Amino acid sequence: MFENALQFYLNNYTVQGLVNLGLIFIILALTTIILLGPQKKSVDDGVHPLFGRYTGKIPNLISLLRFPLGLWIFCVYYFPVLHNSLASFSMHLAFALICILDSLDGRFARKWNAVTEDGKSLDPAADKWATFCLAATAYVYGDFRWWGVAIIFGREIISMVQRYRLQRRGEDVSARWLGKIKAGVQFTVLYMFLLRIELLPGTIFLEVIARALPAGLMLWATILLCFCTVISLFPFFKSFSYVNAYTQSQKSESNRPWYILLIPNLFTLGNYLCGVTAVYFAMPGVEVQHRSFVVLFWVLSAALCDAFDGPLARKLNAHSDFGACLDSSTDLSTFGLATAVIIYLSFSELRGALSFLGIALAIIYFLYVHLRLAHFTELAGQKEDKSVKSDFEGMPSPTGAVSVLIAFTFFENIYLLAFAIVLISMLMYSKLDFVSHSNSIHHKLYQYLLIPLLLTGFALLLVLIFQQPFVSSHFSRELSVYFRLCSWLLALPIGGYILDAFYRTYLKGK
């Protein structure tokens, strides 16, 4: 009976995968139950019934366990003798334990009053080691990109230096919330690359799913990982504190249910994902017609998501400090970093090679977006009533990003493009009085002319983007004309928006 069941298990891949996954979940559940222990008898109780007087050392031991587990994952792929089903299962189990132990060390320390300064440093160090092992394995034996590895390693080296400097100054070096999100995205994406490696026999059915994913989707996931990695580095620098500091409001924190609070944050997340998608279509290895218009569409989609998250939060009374912080970091990612990368990639495509002018313009543009967001956060902190939406000092970063990409659809001369990018960058950090999108609907110029033009251009662009794969080559020239019409429909309201800012700043008072 047992032999028949074992033979059925070995011969049926689906059953084998389900059983192995179930076994992993059981091990994780038992690990969680044993480590966290029973309900505490009192708040001040700091003695785990199983570990006794060694309770204070357990969180650090949990963190230290992730070091050999990360190394084991690399060894399973490195040594041919381990290319068998048992070692493959142990690799999946090691990865699952790394993920659960990453959560349990902090939870254990907080529950049993075992938080230490050493633990605050050891936890991110264990995360870095696990990420190093996963990234090295995915690059050496899989199809993970070299620039992804470079970004991961560069980020971790810089963060370690900054963490050491902060620790010497007596400042908090515990993991930031962006760092936790970064670790989750990194582990997920790198694990997907490990599942695609064909050196090991499949022991859970997830390998089949991962290997069936298209290469384009994995490239998009790599870009997502890189952006999460870079953005998580900024809070280590004081000038970028606005992406990590919650914006406190005079109004009390919303007491709405979590699913109501989630609605505006979903639009913020859509903003971020649209920015990642824009960079994906700007990559030279991605084959796409009318590239500049496709990239413009996705950044414009991100801008529309950004336009809705704030009003929705106020309308639903779903404002939260986390949502405000998430919005700032997303704006810096999409309208700052992503657009800067697109500027560099677009210039390199125009030049047919590495463009140092593109690098310089990308840096200039990103710095102005950073200055604009930092200044905006400072002004927002000075407002007495933060629930009232005020106008902007300087062009909003979403408008700046869209304006820059519209310029790429009009000009091919690199010097005209460079002039346009620098001019738009300066407008974002200017003293001009730009009306906010929430207040613009109360002005007739926007209500009856500029906003309808903008929405018409976006709607036409939406139709053309998703129709172009089905348009025959006989209409390719006409399609290009239609795309340029979209650019005019978008450029006219943005131009009117800038002119109105000059009027409100210099002429309206007179």
What keyword list fits this structure?
510 residues, mainly alpha, Four Helix Bundle (Hemerythrin (Met), subunit A), 2 strands
Would you give an account of this structure?
The protein is mainly α and 510 residues long. It folds into two domains: 16-236, Four Helix Bundle (Hemerythrin (Met), subunit A), CATH 1.20.120; 238-507, CDP-alcohol phosphotransferase transmembrane (TM) domain (Four Helix Bundle (Hemerythrin (Met), subunit A)), CATH 1.20.120. The chain is built from 18 helices and two strands. The protein has helices at residues 2-11, 13-36, 58-78, 85-111, 117-141, 146-168, 177-196, 206-212, 215-231, 258-282, 291-315, 321-351, 356-382, 397-410, 414-428, 437-440, 444-467, 476-507; strands spanning 392-393, 433-434. The chain has a two-stranded antiparallel sheet. α5 runs antiparallel to α6 and α14 packs antiparallel against α15 (414-428). The longest helix is centred in the last third of the chain and has 32 residues, at 476-507. The radius of gyration is 26 Å and the shape is globular. Mean pLDDT is 85; it is low at 246-252.
